[in-house]
TrEMBL record, chains A, B:
Residues 1-23 form the signal peptide. Keywords: Calcium, Hydrolase, Signal. Monomer. The keyword Hydrolase applies. It comes from Pedobacter gandavensis. Residues 601-701 form the Glycosyl-hydrolase 97 C-terminal oligomerisation domain. Residues 310-506 form the Glycosyl-hydrolase 97 catalytic domain. One of its GO terms (molecular function) is hydrolase activity. This is Glycoside hydrolase family 97 protein. Its cofactor is Ca(2+). It comes from the Bacteria. Residues 26-292 form the Glycosyl-hydrolase 97 N-terminal domain.
């Protein structure tokens, strides 16, 4: 080789080295997903993602605007890159499957910003079903304490996708999902922002996560975050000219977006991708991006099937409040001297009826709301010292109910409505948890209804994210399980803190009594809200016309009765409520049998069919058994669901009990028309089942031993 | 009498009746003060105050602007009036005198606002030395929960008074007092607002309370508040055209000024008046307006004379921090693996030296600052989890020091610097107090340096007033005494909560090391800051040139040594620090003898002479003895103080030890020139004592038995 040739070769090699020093590529284990990272002209970090050769995320910027400090947006050099592989399996304490495989290829890029002498790390983990990436801020001389003005993470989309979206909001997720193209978001935002007692939208094109999308060529894309700890919740701002989403963090009372102390990191930003809708539902990436649990003993953590003194108040039949005063002062008002309103449901006698029902039907617990002093004036008054979480109403006998429940092997589920008076809750937290332990409660439903106190903070800001975490970790010290309502939507933290059983954090069944949910609501939620963790959806309403309980309430549940059964399978949660009243269930014992039988913990899960907004059919294997449960939900159109029971064991026989819509069923016009049939099935059996508009079916498949 | 005469008589009578139905008059028990209340043309409540016929407060408005509700400013009718008298005496747990007489005439005016069907009560209490009045909001149908937009209490002054003022500020009181006419406030405000790590002025003519004034014809007037509980701190806005002061409450993070639930009340607004300056100092009106204590057992509350590991850090000789890291994480940073900086004062050996000194000199306690993890990066970083209040540095042996101190009958005073991370403090409060009890601590100095977290709140807003109160009440549950620094200035709450021994809440001795205080500072503070309660002024600095401790610090204490002794008498507090270092005191044992001898609790107090800004001389009788202590402080001019010891008992003989400035003493040029002389005295003895510029004298008068 001549010198010139060598020289040219050297140049080519250097160029290659230089290119590979600036442009990084990472592939998923199965090679379907490709991540590329590079620096733009101004030294800005840029990433892009493609799936089977199709662009999912076009070149998108990364970085931060800081307050009173130079931004971390450009002027970077790549100081180091490291690639690695991880492949381990782990067992969740509870879950949809017994074993979860955590398999990814990782790229960690150390970026140095010479002008400021600071460096950050961007870590990418590419799974077969998606990408997670986060920012890391190692301890270093020139980056110590810093305040985030805004995170500037872009997700440049490859098209005007169909999206299943909620308005971006710093305080509520309780909106109905709007299904539209991204280009239509702006025009539909006004109608989408329905009233809520605590809400704060930030943009005409602001969106919440999890955000579910489907491209025109059939790619399913879900954007969310994982491991949201000590950081502000991410929403997305849509630039609907370019179809670029950009992160928007939730501000605090003075407009700052995050207070950071190095060494620290952001949550993982997640992009789950597949050409199969079912893969989105089955993704464990968000869980996998969370840290393993450090809990030494998890034996006290058990899934719960429960009923509750709740729906009768939601419908307006009963009240949380004991009397009709409009002004009470804890520790001052002598409730025993007031006139009860005669509609207070959480009284000893009534609670015992629920306990009896739970015991008769093998349910684990009875939630009781309205047991404690303070409900007369708790709502909408920005009241600071609103509850003390330990003082019962005169008609709720704590000790007697403890004894009675224990004698029936039923737990009472505690209720801590905080009324968003968060300092007040924290002041009482140890006392409240100790009260629970002393009186036999091992699980609490907490709530954050109303605007946050301290005023100016938002439900999803760093301040409150820190609080929810504090409540969960302290609960674990007391071996208490938590079901937090109106709190931040989950981001897979249950892996690390398995006592966080569920959240609400979306528009749940209660809204069926507040005007109704869309008939397709539950064909969407698993693709959106449930991506980060279980939802306490509280299904199981059999008496769908609310006027049956409260003549003044004309709402109705937009669901057939059969579909209500299906939800125990399609809306995964380790905490499942049979939300209707015992006396109603007793009128439909044959249908209720499914709720008695259905498991709340699983060894395996399959998506039999799914299309967001249209239908979802799951099959799940009950933990420690060979029994399966199938559930199917569909939209307002109704359909015929055809599934193959090929997940059954080849050498076993089963009895399948099918709870289905009657042929004339309709979620509004004829919701209670259901049929139950028993059939023998074995592996490979095909089922073709009619689903009414707003309907579905549920099947228990019990091994014949 | 003719019919016409009767008719005229009737009209006169009705007119008189009508007048007296609208105009109310109240007199002090000695008749010197007259309060008049009436309704103005628009039904606005108006009050005025005069003293010995001279106007003190010209007709001034009262009322409130509410948020999202009709104002409570006008449209009132007088629905009821009640006059009463109260005359009782009570014994404070600690104080300047043994018995306090509470003697006032009261007028309670019920005002109804027909347009809104609401009513309030304005209650006036007229003492011989001043007026207190407050608003009350009884429980009623149309006034339940309400938010204050602003309180609109006026104090229309009768002239352009000389005022001793601090800039109105929502976060700090650590300004030097400016002495000027009210008309000069605007022009002097800029210079008055010196830098502070947490400050928020609100107006070019905004003022803090207590506000001390002197009219041109020699009337002393002091405005403040009493019983500030669950309400926002009041500052004053001066309209310098009309010489009208108006209340300005401290806003919260969203600009609201108070969240109220009826039945409730505002604090008392107080106007202390006399033509004798000494009467202002002796006033007990603010204490009297507070509720009696409900504490059943107060035996654990005892005044404290203490030294402390503190001044050596304030001067810069030592550090609070253990090492020189700029970033620590509690529970993560392993301090035992870090390199100590060699200047950490709060180590076991050094603390024992202070304990020895305290034991040798009959002092009660040793304050130790910098004993706990977290001081390396606590300041100015808005750090949330900044201290845990229980984890000592590696060189501070909690158990050993507990044992050692107890063996010497000395207490260690706990230190809780919160760094204004208030949620963090509350989260740790029970644990921190329990740690104190378990380790022999019965008193805590707390601090709130820096901007408040939750961000957006202010040191003096309702949110923080509520927090300080929470900390005091919880401390009482643990039998802990509290000395709160950087918290709200006191308003007499120690009557109700006698475990609140003192606050800082003003510019104290530490500022002598941060550039110095004015030489007349202590001739003003008793007329201003001390009106609401004791100040932990921490006097007793003998080595007044800070460079003796830290060559890099050129500050000096603007005081002679003799005046430092006087401050133990002139700056009343049940908690008194001998702030200098033991090794310095050991060089001046003769002068230190006064600090050993002076009492911290009193049976009687006399003002021998006083003029705000010029000089104050107090005499106090030590509790349970016949001994007296005299202290005199003067301004930068120096003077000769002539006093009469006519308060001594007639039939007793005493030895007076006089600690005075040397003839050439000067606070800057020759501060340590002092002379000590012993003389026999008896009742009626006259003393004529030279006081140097920035000087004074201290006298112990011990009974010869």
């Amino acid at each position: 080789m001549t010198n010139i040739s060598k020289f040219i070769l050297l140049i080519c090699f250097c160029y290659t080295t230089t290119s590979s020093a600036s442009a990084q590529e990472l592939r998923s284990p199965d090679n379907n997903l490709t991540l590329k990272f590079s620096l733009g002209n101004t030294g800005s970090p840029v990433y892009q993602l493609s799936y089977k050769g199709k662009s999912v995320i076009k070149p998108s910027n990364l970085g931060f605007q800081l307050k009173n400090a130079a931004d971390l947006l450009n002027g970077f050099e790549i100081a180091d890159t490291k690639q690695s592989t991880f492949d381990e399996s782990w067992k969740p304490v509870w879950g949809e499957v017994k074993i979860i495989r955590n398999h990814y290829n990782e790229l960690a890029v150390t970026l140095k910003q010479p002008a400021s002498d600071r460096f950050i790390v961007v870590r990418f983990r590419l799974f077969n079903d998606g990408l997670g990436f986060r920012y890391e801020f190692p301890q270093q001389k020139n980056l110590n304490y810093f305040t985030i003005k805004e995170e500037k993470t872009q997700f440049a989309l490859a098209g005007d996708h169909k999206a299943f979206w909620l308005p971006g909001d710093y305080d509520t997720q309780e909106y109905s999902t709007t299904t539209s193209n991204l280009s239509e978001v702006r025009g539909k935002m006004k109608a989408a922002v329905t009233p809520n007692v605590s809400q704060k939208t930030f943009s005409e094109t602001g969106l919440q996560t999890p955000l579910m999308m489907k491209s025109k060529d059939g790619l399913y894309i879900n954007i969310h975050e994982a491991a949201l700890i000590n950081y502000s919740t991410m929403s997305l701002e849509l630039n609907d000219k370019d179809m670029v989403l950009e992160s928007v963090l939730t501000p605090d009372a003075i407009g700052d977006k995050g207070y950071m102390q190095a060494p620290t990191q952001s949550p993982w930003r997640t992009i789950i991708v597949s050409d199969k809708a079912g893969d989105i539902l089955m993704s464990k990436t968000i869980l996998n991006l969370n840290e393993p649990t450090k809990f030494k003993d998890t034996s006290w953590i058990k899934p719960i099937k429960y009923v509750g003194v709740w729906w009768e108040m939601i419908t307006g039949k009963s009240t949380w409040a004991y009397n009709d005063l409009d002004n009470v002062q804890l520790g001052v008002t002598d409730y025993s001297k007031t006139t009860p309103n005669g509609k207070h449901a959480a009284n000893t006698k009534r609670v015992k009826e629920y306990i009896d029902f739970a015991a008769e039907n093998g349910l684990d617990a009875v939630l009781v709301e309205g047991w404690n002093e303070g409900w007369e004036d708790w709502f909408g008054k920005t009241k600071d010292y609103v509850f003390d979480f330990v003082t019962p109403y005169p008609d709720f006998d704590v000790k007697e109910l403890h004894r009675y429940a224990a004698s029936k092997n039923v737990k009472i589920m505690m209720h801590h409505e905080t009324s968003s008076s968060v300092r007040n809750y924290e002041r009482h937290l140890d006392t409240a948890y100790k009260f629970m332990v002393d009186n036999g409660y091992n699980a609490v439903k907490s709530g954050y209804v109303g605007n946050i106190i301290p005023r100016g903070e938002h439900h999803y800001g760093q301040w409150l994210v820190n609080h929810y975490q504090y409540a969960i970790e302290k609960a674990a010290e007391y071996k208490i399980m938590v079901n937090a309502h109106e709190a931040v939507r989950p981001t897979g933290l249950s892996r690390t803190y398995p006592n966080l059983l569920a959240n609400e954090a979306a528009r749940g069944t209660e809204y069926e009594a507040f005007g109704g949910n869309n008939a397709d609501h539950t064909t969407i939620l698993p693709f959106t809200r449930l991506m980060g963790g279980p939802m306490d959806y509280t299904p199981g309403i059999f008496e769908t016309k609310i006027s049956a309980y409260n003549p003044e309430n004309n709402s109705f549940v937009h669901s057939t009765l059969a579909r209500q059964l299906a939800l125990y399978v399609t809306m995964y949660s380790p905490l499942q409520m049979a939300a209707d009243l015992p006396e109603t269930y007793n009128k439909y014992k044959d249908a209720f049998q499914f709720i008695k039988d259905v498991a709340v913990d699983w060894d395996d899960t399959k998506v039999l069919e799914a299309e967001p907004g249209d239908y979802i059919t799951f099959a799940r294997k009950a933990k420690g058994t060979n029994n399966w449960f199938v559930g199917s939900t569909c939209d307002e159109n109704g359909r015929t669901s055809t599934v193959n029971l090929d997940f059954l064991d080849a050498n076993k026989k089963y009895i399948a009990t099918v709870y289905a819509d009657g042929k004339d069923a309709h979620y509004e016009l004829n919701p209670k028309a259901y049929v139950i049939k028993k059939i023998n099935v074995k592996k490979g059996a095909k089922l073709s089942q009619y689903c009414a508009p707003g309907g579905g079916y549920a099947i228990s498949i019990i091994e014949i031993k």
